[in-house]
Amino acid sequence: MVAKDYPFYLSVKRANCALEVQTVTSPAKETEEPSNKRVKPLSRVTSLASLIPPVRATPLKRFSQTLQRSISFRSDSRPDLFSPRPWSRNMPPANTKRRDSKLWSETFDVCVNHMLTSKEIKRQEAIFELSQGEEDLIEDLKLAKKAYHDPMLKLSIMTEQELTQIFGTLDSLIPLHEDLLRRLQEVRKPDGSTEHVGHILVGWLPCLNSYDSYCSNQVAAKALLDHKKQDHRVQDFLQRCLESPFSRKLDLWNFLDIPRSRLVKYPLLLREILRHTPNDHPDQQHLEEAINIIQGIVAEINIKTGESECQYYKERLIYLEEGQRDSLIDNSRVVCCHGELKNNRGVKLHVFLFEEVLVITRVITHNEQLCYQLYRQPIPVRELVLEDLQDGEVRLGGSIRGAFSNNERIKNFFRVSFKNGSQSQSHSLQANDSFNKQQWLNCIRQAKEKVTCAGKAGMLNSEARFLLSPNGSKVPQGETTLEQMDQSDCESECSMDTSEISIDCERMEQTNSCENEKQIETNV
Fold it and tell me: Would you kindly state where each structural domain of the chain is located, as residue ranges?
């Protein structure tokens, strides 16, 4: 370009810039079609950028949002980012529709209701709820296997050993409940009413003892499932299932926990049937027997599940030194309470309350497993001092931190302390809320009462076994009784009659029976 043409080039350039300014600032044209022109002068673009109103997102921004949504379900820490799918809201699955109506009077011919009393209708409703619950349970168990277990095994998302650990004996429970459902359907009349169910329940309920192994495995199954969720393939699969209509917004663990919740519901269902059963009905006696059977089974499974849970956590305790080991932990069979608490410095601790010892730990990962490292020396419950602290009584550690802390951070504290000779500990622990705090206080107080009562019973039992002899030494009670009998024989120099022998025998039997009862109480 020659020098004389340069002014003409500047004038054309200014005209183009003015035309671009008019195009950008025109609201009508902006609304109809966004400008895709590339502005040449960089300084002009910088100055005119503030004039463009943010009416709509650019394609790149929309694409970035779409990409973020597509990969967001791979994040383990933010599972709530998923908005429900439109098709999942507008098209509910068929099984949820079938579960909408669970009333006996709405399922069968309503004309039968006019022939039955109000109490009998309630009885039929309770029996139908039992039968319908079995049908729903069977469907959920089959769904857990078909929609979760089999696909993860086929896609190699988990190994067969891991799936066996998580699902346990789930397969064996399906035919068990199918048997009860078949029996209930066989005794149902064509009009939908059922006359007798007590004898069926008495014969079937002992089969629930097979729940022992399934419930005892749940603690380890839950821990393994939570650990596997850190794998993005597992998390991706479970999240997709959660968004699918068949899941009814229930995750995998909800399905795996359904059998346990069903087991503890049986006593309530049977009591409801018994409540609406007339006293002269043949089912009255059978239902009472069935309730006793299921209560015994639930209590036994509850004990074994508690022992399994206690053993699981004891095996994952990590001791920093040999002096932290305590026989009270090794002899524990039940975890009374455990959970996360914070100290006054904000350190997260996991506290275990066993039967006779309180253990404060910190959660760590050891060999890709969640373990609990002892934070301090175990505190015996017998010597533990519990204090309920008022809100605001505890000061948070550090002057700066305490100065800027709000009221929420100084609430729900309680203190546990221990002092035995040169050893002493004191921990101010904060619960998540007032309800959680009250639960901890109640559990610790109950544990202290049990330990105190057991100690008094042991002292009484030991004192009952020994009595002071005439010379002041302790001898067994049986020997003292025999010596007194010999002394009385020598002093009287005559034989005892039959009445005196019988009285002494009765006294000895009463003493022995009292000793046995005290020994049993001590063992319990």
Answer: 66-72+100-313, 319-394+410-462
